Amino acid sequence: MIKTVRRGDVDIAYEEFGRPGGEPLLLIMGLSFQMIWWPEEFCEQLAERGFHVVRFDNRDSGLSSRCPGTKYTARDLAADALAVMDELGWASAHVAGASLGSAIAQVVAIDAPQRVRSLTCIMSGGVGGNWNTMRVLKLGALFKLTGKRYPSDLAGRTQAQVDVIRAMSSPHRPFEEERIRRIAAVGAERGGLDNAATQRQFAAGRTTGNLTRQLRRLTMPVLVIHGEDDPLIRPVASRDIAAAIPGSRLLTYPKMGHEIPSDLFTTLADEIHAITKAAA
Fold it and tell me: Is the pLDDT score of 152 beyond 90?
C-alpha cells in the first residue's frame, strides 16, 4: 500500500516491505527513476533477511509531488528521506542509495550521521564536484539517453523507460525485456519520465559539491557497489568513494551495468545484510 508523508509543500510517496520492527532499511532511488526500480522481488528478498524495507519516490518522480518552477538542492532531497524516516518513527536506519540516490544517501550520512546505521552506495556518481563528475560520466551515453522523443501516451511512456534501461544495462548480459517492460508499464501509469523534472533533479545533485572531506569523517560501516559494465558512470566513481571513506568495502561485478539485474538480487541482498550485521 502506498502511503505519503508531507514535508513543507511536498508530498513524498513511500511503500513498505517486511514486518515493522525488523531492521529498518531505507532505499533511495536515482535520477528521474521511481521507487519501483527497486524491484519488488529484491525488496522481498531483503525483507526475508529480517529488514523492514521502505522505498520511496523522490520529489519530482512517481507519485511524489512534482516541483515545476522550483529550485531545490541535494540537501532538500536528503531532508525528504529523513522525513520518511520520521514518519515511520525511525530514529536511525540502514540507508542504501542507487545512482543519484547514492549521493542523497551520502548527504544523509554526512548531515545526520547519528541516524545512519550503515551506508550502501550502489552505482554512484562519485564524490561530487564538477571536475569529478565530468571525469566519471560517460557523456556519449548520457547524450543518447536524452536525445530521443516518444509519444506522450501510455505506450510511449512505457517504451521510453524500456529504452533507457536497455541503454544502461550491461551489453554482456541478456536484456530482461519482459521484466523491465512490466516495471516500465507500471512506471508509465505513475507518470513516466519527465524531462523537466529530470533536469531539476540533476541540478540538485550537482549542489553537493565535492564531498571527499566530509566522507572521510564517516564512521558507520559502508558498502560500495559498482558494475564494471556500467555504460553511464565509470567504476572509478565508486572507487573514489571507497578510497575516501575509512574502512569501506568495495565490490564490483563484471556483468553489471547501471542497473540492478535479477541474477544479482540474492548476492546484493546478502552483501547489504552483511554490512548491516557489521553495524550491529
Answer: no
